[in-house]
Each structure stands twice: as C-alpha cells, then as structure tokens.
Amino acid sequence: MTTDQDAISLKNDLKKCTFQTLETYSNVHRGSGHKSIITTHLFEKARLIVLDYLNLSGSGFSVVFCSPISAHEILKRLKGKNYSVVSSDDIGLSLGVRAIVAKKNSFPGGAPSLTGGGTARLVSGNWVVWSFLPDKYEAGTPSIVNIITFARALQLVQKYGSELLEKTNDYNEDVKDLLYNDHLVEVSGQILLDKLRDTIIGRNLTVPTSAGNTSFINFDSSASTPSLEPIAEAFTRCWNLSDKNQKEIVQEVREICFGFFGAPFSKYDIIFTANTTESINLVANELINKNGGETVVLSTMLEHSSNDLPWRKVSKESPIRLSVDNDGIINSEELEMQLKSYNYDKKYGSKRIRIVAVSGASNVLGICNNLKQISEITHRYGAELLVDAAQLVAHRGINMEADGIDYLAVSAHKIYAPFGCGILISGKGLLNYSKNEIISLGEENVSGIAALGKSLSLFSRVGMDIVEEDERQLTSYALNALSKVPGIKVYGVKTTDNKNFNNKLGVIVFELKRIMADGIAKKLSIDSGIGVRFGCHCAHIIIKHLLNIGPGLEKFQRLVVTMIPKVNLPGLTRVSFGIENTREDIDNLVVALENIVNKSKLGKRKSRKEVESGIKEMITNAENRIYGL
Q1: SS3 79
Q2: Which of 103, 321, 421, 626 has the most CB within a 10 Å radius?
Q3: How far is CA 461 from the centre of its chain?
Q4: How far apart are CA 475 and CA 468, in angstroms?
C-alpha cells in the first residue's frame, strides 16, 4: 500500500535530479566545455532509458524528444506507421515532454515539419543538408533539463508504478507567492543583480585540466544560460499543484509577459511554445495557410537557422536576405528598396513581402539593429515585423508596442530558465490559433512556464537597463583585453570607439592564425577549463560571408559533409557573456589564448588523455547521481 509520504519522497528524488542536472548544465552537442560534454551524455542516455521503458532495442529504433506542439506535427507524418509515444503528462508531471519512438526507416525523408537550429548540418542560401535522426526532428534547443528529469521519472515509474507520481498532484498554494516571493524579495536593482549571481546553480564547479583541477569558466551563454536557484525552485514546486493552480500559473505568467515585453493585453496575444524555433515555425505555417505562394519573406544575412529555414517553406522566393555591413548593421535603404519594389511598385506581379523577419541581436556578431527604424519602414509598405529575440531577451529591454513589433519569439533558456518554454507574442488577430489545440498543447509545460515567469519577475526587479550597462562594461573590457592577443582577428565591432559599440552585446567571435576553431575550443577546455562554442553557430550564411566562402567552396563543403559526416568545417570561436562572468574570467581567457598562440611550455602538465579520463569520470559520476537507482 502506497502512502502520501512515499509519493512526496519520489517527488523529492526528482527535484534532486533536476538540481544535480543543473549543476553541470549547458547546451548539448556543439559546445566544447566540460558542462556541455556532460549534459550531452545525460541527454543521450535519456533515449536509452525510454527504449528500456518500452522494452525495445536501440539498434533499430530512434527516440525523438519533442514538445507537445512538435509531436503534433511529427505524428501527422507518421500516420500508418508503427510508433509509440511516451508523455510526461501520462505520468503526472507538467514537463511538456513527448518521446516518439519508431523504427528509424519510419521517419519520412526530406525536410522535417519544423525546421531550424540543429535540424540542419549545412545550410546555403538555397539548399540544405539535413541532420541525421534524431536531430533532424528536434527543432531548436530541446527541453534538456525536463527530458533528463522525465527519464529519471520513467525509471521510478518502472520501479514503483505511476500512481505514486500522480498521487500528490492536488496541492494548492498561493500562485503569486510562487512567482513573486523569494529570499531576495526585499532588494532590487544592482543589489539584486549581484545577489542573483550567488544563486547561479553550478557556479562553483571544479573541472580537470592539464594544469590540474580548476574552476570552470562558462563563456557559452548565447547557447543557453544556467539556472538560478529561485527559478529552479519555481520549476519544481509546480509538480504538486492542482489543475486549478496550474491554470492560474499560466494566466499569471501571461500577465508578466505582457508587462515585461511592453505588449498590452488589449493589443497582443501570447502562445506558449517550446522555444524560439517552434514559435517562428508557427508563424511560417500560418503564413502558408493565409497567402500560399504569393507571400515573400524579407530577412537578413545575420539570421540564425531558426529565423531562416522556416521561411523557406512559405514560397520558393523566401526568404530574400538583406546585406549587412562589417559590424552587422542592416542597410535601411536596401530594406526600403525591396519593400517598395514588391509592395508599392508591384514589380513582381502579385507577390508581396508580408513579413520582415530580423534578429533582435545577432548570435554571431552580437549586434542589435534599430528595431524601431526597421518597423517604421516595414509598416510604411504594408508588411509586418517579426523579431527573433532569443539573443536579445537576457541583455536588453524590449518594448513591442513602442518599437512597433508585430511578432516576437523568445526562448526561456536564454534568460536563466532552461526548462523547455518559449513564447510567441503577436498582434491581436494576426494569428488564427485561438480555437486551435496548439494553445492547450503549448500550456502543458506548466513548470517551464512558471520558471519563465519567475525569471522575468526577477529581471523586472533588477531592471534591464542595469543588466545592459553591466554587460557593456564587461564587453568593453573584453574587447580591449582580446586586442592584445597576438594573431587574433575579432569580427564585427572590435573597439569601444566604434559608433556601433553601444549596440553590441557581450558576444564576440574570433579566429587565431592557422588554428581551426574546434582546435581553439578544445585547447581552452582541456588546458584552462574554459567552455566556449565553435563552428557556424547555426548561422551558416553570415559565417560563410565573414570567412569569404564563395559558391565553389560552398559546393565542395556540401560534398565533404555528405561523404564524411563527422568532419568539422571552418568556423569561428565564440565567447558570450552572462551575468556570471567577471573581468577575472576574461583575464584567464586572454592568458589561455596567448598560451595557445605562443605554444607556451608551461612546465609539467597532465596529458590530454589524462584530462579526458578525468572528464569521463565526471560523466560517470553525474550519470550515477542522476540515473542511479
């Protein structure tokens, strides 16, 4: 006979699993740091746990993790095939996780239903080499922490039965207390920001390097941010709430979003999604349904794949890409010329530019374009403005109404709430999802929605102007320090006296002479415990533009990745700052880069093999802590 105490004990097990996952959390697959390597292993291990739960062999099956919305799209294409679906909702957890399991040859070829992020291995202006399963169907950053917690929950269900996890789902508490109250409630502004740094989960991680154990330095916040203790607490507290409380959470977070993004309820609608990628796909799908092949999307060379690939299905001409200067600034005259040609002069028959889709901040050059100016030009010619705010949200204030933004797409994992929640805010009546099951599917991840609400509540109390100034000072220090590294080439804004410096975030891409980006990243990790990201950063078009990779070399690259899938193509190394980073971190980065350039002999050091052995031990320990029964 099970008791309430047994059920509470299992929920505590899951909470412990979540916090332990967050201690070594980073985005998966394409990061070089210790955290990314560990998280990738735990994420991939979750697939094996799902197969074990279904008593299936891994050799012939593929496990695709997705949100309820993306599962809805994938299952449409699997009709008539044999597949299984395991859902977090089925075991009483509000995590918004689906695992679709089918034979590998059951998944259809060609372009996936939702595109962007990791769904492509190589992207050109007019062709795509799609990723292999399961990445091809996992659009955008997956809800990594939710998925690992879900996998742990499946282990517990196998051992104890699902009724124990469902048993406590009737608890009522004050929703406003959950979202607004915490041990820092009495402080705000700079004081709160400083205190929040002390709540970063995993901030004191020690990792093995060739110089011995050292504190890990995370320079990969553009990929995903760590969580903060009050945010993670909000996430786990939702698991026990009654249905009534969960609905109240969703409504209250909706109100928080209206305020944080300057989007009054009377003028805007909000749909909860899994991430920015999913949000943009929803707009693209709606555009297809509305206007068919007569629609054209105008975008830029700067865009992340998530704000490029979804538009390609709108029409054969989409997207048209605006050029940018060396800093990443859009040519406003070219923007107006294109809009005038299509929408006013009607040079292209019945084809019209319906959407101008731009990034609020580039994930490569870190530049913020003038959204208000872009909006004014866009609306002058009868088009609508969509902003991919994934990179902007944690660094600058956003005011949709003031800047004339029609659609805004955001991921919570970029603003210290890495729990599988995204939002799509649109002008009233622009989307027809109000009577669609999409809305209810998007609201299934109540825990992730609560975490986003808690994050926005905290940063509202800090003030985004304070976050912006803090980061500007750090970026200034970093650019000056990096300029002294021999042989370094920084792309985009390089100096503080550049007229566009104030429009730059703490995102810096660079190369070192005669050293590939993956080599730099691995050396920083192995020798100095510094985690960065390397490659094309899911922004292939701007990276190839910066590296002067022309059509001929582009075709050769396509041949190479087709024949040798695991090869690393040329790219750039990226460092990106979050609230955790300090000047001391940057000093350590500069020393590490100078050692790489000068091939410094630093005395007796551990071999790479010894360091990798230490990392494997960290992976084993993390797996045993989180998945060990």
Answers
A1: coil
A2: 421
A3: 24
A4: 10
DSSP conformational letter for 281: H
* Residue 188, both tokens: 């705000």
pLDDT per position as a tens digit, 317-334: 889 999 999 999 999 999
Q: Which has more pLDDT, 170 or 221?
A: 221
Q: Is the pTM of this model over 0.85?
A: yes
Location of each CATH 3.90.1150.10 domain in the chain: 464-607
**Assigned fold of 4-170+618-627:** Aspartate Aminotransferase; domain 2 (3.40.640)
Neighbours of 499 (CB within 10 A): 9
Cα separations in angstroms, 136 against 108, 277, 441, 535: 11, 13, 21, 18
Pairing of strands 217-218, 530-531: parallel
pLDDT at residue 1 is higher than 70: no
CATH number of 464-607: 3.90.1150.10
Q: What is the DSSP letter of 302?
A: T
- C-alpha separations of 324 from 99, 108, 263, 317 in Å: 40, 37, 29, 20
Q: What percent of the chain has pLDDT over 70?
A: 97
pLDDT tens profile 440-454: 999 999 999 999 999
CATH for the stretch 237-461: 3.40.640.10
Q: Using H for helix, E for strand and C for coil, what is the string for 342-379?
A: HHHCCCCCCCEEEEEEEECCCCCCCECCCHHHHHHHHH
Whole-number mean pLDDT of the chain?
A: 94
- What's residue 531's pLDDT? 97
Q: Can you tell me the distance from the alpha carbon of 306 to that of 64, in angstroms, rounded to the nearest whole number?
A: 19
Helix (H) or strand (E) holding 438: helix 437-442
Mean pLDDT of 471-486: 98
Cα four-point dihedral sign 464, 408, 141, 18: positive
A 10 A CB-CB count for 19 gives 18
pLDDT digits (tens, 9 = 90+) for 596-629: 998 876 667 899 999 999 999 999 999 999 999 7
Query: What distance in Å separates the CA atoms of residue 75 and residue 82, rounded to the nearest whole number?
Result: 11
Q: Which helix (H) or strand (E) holds 534?
A: strand 533-535
Identify whether the C-beta of residue 165 lies closer than 8 Å to the C-beta of residue 91. yes
How far is 388 from 372, CA to CA, in rounded Å?
Answer: 14
| pLDDT at residue 29 in the model | 79
Q: Where in the chain is the domain with CATH 3.40.640.10?
A: 4-170+618-627, 237-461
DSSP code, position 341: I
